[in-house]
Every structure is written in structure tokens, then in C-alpha cells.
Amino acid sequence: MIEDGLTPEAISYSGVISAFARHGSRAKDRENALAWLNLLEKEGLPADTKSYTTVIAVYAKVGDFATAESLLGRMVEKGHSPDVVSYTAVIDACAKGGREAAAATYLEQMVQQGLSPNERTFTAVIDASAKRGDSDQAERMLERMADQRLSPDLICYNTVIRSYARQGDISGALRRLNSMLDQKVMPDVISFTPIIMEVSNMKASSEVRTGIIGKIFERMIQLRVKPDRVLLPRLNSALGKAYVAQKCEGLLEVVKKRSVGAPVKKPVTYL
């Protein structure tokens, strides 16, 4: 277009930026997306919020916090107002790029700008908090979601459960597991795996560890959650291969006998 003497409009540049962004997992495409954004500004054309956000998101996906943060600052300097998607992408970059502590800071910054975080924003902050080992902050994020009438999903709950488990707080992990059931969010095998893994490594007698794992496994079966290849070896080691196999086979019969819409039984406390 330029070679033909035609002057492309901003929308043309945005289209090219989006095209490269679709393949942003490759470094060259990320660089090209950023280069076209730079060219857009160099030509004196107005780069809109969408163009900036598209490039920010590309770098956020690979955890390049420095570039994502720099672009966000550049947006503001150029007189553009970052939107929820812009901030969420930067927060996601915080979680993936080793800048977990900055995630909450950007959350507060976007709130101060009059923006309302959505489920994806809070999920990114929760992820960052969990990676930092800050279960308390992750819990506060869940509470803020409830205050704003947002519903945490399975990923949110699993992230908090994993955070508790990694800190060795089995009671906290089980408490959060029970609370998700109270909210009618059904756990999956990922919900149970970090808890059982941590119990199997805890400093206690073999009898105590086996007893706890056995109760958690029974709860999995009650909820029709089948162990995967990651969890199965730990269960076999703690409870015996024959016992675990029998329970898993019986799981199919449980599914047949129970109606799909049957209410979830009241969660129990294992510790």
C-alpha cells in the first residue's frame, strides 16, 4: 500500500497488528506487532486503545511484564485511557512474569480510574497471589468478587486451594474446597490433587496420612471425581492399588444410579 503511494489509515495498521497478534506465541510475530504499533505512531496516525491493548496482551501471554507495563505507561502518556482489558492483560503478565506483588497494585490503580474489574481480572490477581504464596490476599480477592456480585469459577477456587496446599495449610485448602461446594461450584480432579499431594508429603505417621487421604478420596468418589494419571500413583501408594481400582470401577455404577440433577451432600471436614 505504501509502495503504491497510498496512505494507510489507522484501521489498516490495527488490522496488521491484530494479524501478528494472533500468532503472538512466536517472538517474531510479537516483535512485528510492536513494530507496526510504533510505525502507526511514527506516521502520526492515532493509535487507539484497542491497538495498544492487543500488543500488551501478546506480551502478557508470554509473561513479558516489562514490555506490557511499558506499553501501558505509553498509552497514558499518549493520552489514551487503558480499559479493563488493558489492565487485566498487565495483571496477567504480573502473574506469569514473576512480578506477583505488582498485580494488586494494578488492580487498585484501575479501580481508582473508575474501572470495574471483571471475573478475568480477579482471576489474574488470584493467580498472582497464589504464586506469591499469599493465600490471605487470594481470599480477599474472592471476597471482593462476592461484594461485586461476581461469581468465582472453578479456576479461581482451584488456584486458592493450590495456594493453601503449597503452604502446607491443609485445613485452609479443605475449607476452601467445602466453600466452593456451598456455592454450587463442582470440584474436579485438579481441586483435589494439590491437597492429596501435600498430605502425602506431610510430617506425620503413615497411619495418619493414609487416614486423611482415604477420607479425601472417599469424598472424590461421592462427588464422582475420577483420579487422573498424576494423582493415581499417590492414591495407589497410600491406599493400595486394588482398593483404588475397586472404588474407581464403582464410580461408574454410582454415576448410573444417581440422577444428574441430584443435590450435592453437605461437605464434611476432614481435619
UniProtKB/TrEMBL annotation:
<dbReference type="Pfam" id="PF13041">
    <property type="entry name" value="PPR_2"/>
</dbReference>
<dbReference type="GO" id="GO:0007005">
    <property type="term" value="P:mitochondrion organization"/>
</dbReference>
<feature type="repeat" description="PPR">
    <location>
        <begin position="153"/>
        <end position="187"/>
    </location>
</feature>
<dbReference type="InterPro" id="IPR002885">
    <property type="entry name" value="PPR_rpt"/>
</dbReference>
<feature type="repeat" description="PPR">
    <location>
        <begin position="118"/>
        <end position="152"/>
    </location>
</feature>
<dbReference type="Pfam" id="PF17177">
    <property type="entry name" value="PPR_long"/>
</dbReference>
<dbReference type="InterPro" id="IPR033443">
    <property type="entry name" value="PROP1-like_PPR_dom"/>
</dbReference>
<dbReference type="InterPro" id="IPR011990">
    <property type="entry name" value="TPR-like_helical_dom_sf"/>
</dbReference>
<dbReference type="GO" id="GO:0005739">
    <property type="term" value="C:mitochondrion"/>
</dbReference>
<dbReference type="GO" id="GO:0006396">
    <property type="term" value="P:RNA processing"/>
</dbReference>
<dbReference type="GO" id="GO:0003729">
    <property type="term" value="F:mRNA binding"/>
</dbReference>
<dbReference type="InterPro" id="IPR051114">
    <property type="entry name" value="Mito_RNA_Proc_CCM1"/>
</dbReference>
<feature type="domain" description="PROP1-like PPR">
    <location>
        <begin position="105"/>
        <end position="188"/>
    </location>
</feature>
<feature type="repeat" description="PPR">
    <location>
        <begin position="48"/>
        <end position="82"/>
    </location>
</feature>
<feature type="repeat" description="PPR">
    <location>
        <begin position="83"/>
        <end position="117"/>
    </location>
</feature>
<protein>
    <recommendedName>
        <fullName>PROP1-like PPR domain-containing protein</fullName>
    </recommendedName>
</protein>
<keyword id="KW-0677">Repeat</keyword>
